[in-house]
Design goal:
- The chain has 178 residues and is an alpha/beta fold.
- The chain has a single domain, classed as Rossmann fold (3-Layer(aba) Sandwich).
- The protein is built from 5 helices and 7 strands; from the N terminus they run H-E-H-E-H-E-E-H-E-H-E-E.
- A 7-stranded mixed sheet has the order 3-2-1-4-5-7-6, sandwiched between helices.
- It is globular, with a radius of gyration of 15 Å.
- The relative contact order is 0.17.
């Protein structure tokens, strides 16, 4: 069994390294857990998803937690720059499909790469992008790793993986150092 709690905790610890985050983006808001975390450590959060159920789940969770610094949009993450076109401090992608949702609706390599191209260009100094990759789609994970491996020296790119569990999700961290 994969310990998703540990992956979530690690992704949040990595995001929290960027102090005084002003703008944060949840590129795939899903059920809203990452959105809630970002709202706690940032002044302003944008959350995106293409599924109505994900949008509703996130809005419900925000309301239950009385959080009001989040703008939720039913939109693909590849179009986030329509809403956020200034430097942002932190972002997270949780790839794959919505937990408890339709497994046929999932992230796709092409849209993730398009989104990442825009995201790295808008990432603030000392900002971080966290990508949580589940091994549902080999093309997606290979495409993302290929893209991030070729980022220039303005960025440090790290991969965090449980080595003794073959099907374990893993994290890629992009940190803008210059």
């Amino acid at each position: 069994m994969i310990n998703l709690v540990k992956i979530t905790e690690l992704s949040h610890e990595l995001l929290a390294k960027t102090k005084n985050a002003r703008i944060a983006i949840d590129m795939t808001c899903g059920n809203g857990q990452d959105t809630i975390f970002l709202a706690e450590i940032s002044k302003e959060v944008y959350a995106f998803d293409i599924q109505e159920i994900a949008i509703n789940n996130t809005k419900r969770l925000l309301k239950e937690n009385k959080i009001d610094n989040v703008i939720v949009k039913k939109e693909s993450h590849e179009l986030f720059d329509i809403y956020v076109n200034t430097p942002f401090d932190i972002a997270i992608y949780n790839l794959g499909f919505l937990p408890g949702g339709d497994k046929k609706i999932k992230t796709e390599a092409l849209t993730v790469i398009k989104s990442l191209e825009k995201a790295v260009s808008l990432l603030a100094n000392d900002g971080r992008i966290i990508i949580v990759i589940y091994l549902h789609d080999k093309l997606e994970s290979e495409s993302i790793e290929g893209f991030v491996s070729n980022l220039n020296s303005e960025f440090d790119v790290m991969k965090y993986k449980i080595l003794n569990k073959k099907k374990s999700p893993y994290i890629i961290e992009i940190h803008r150092v210059k």
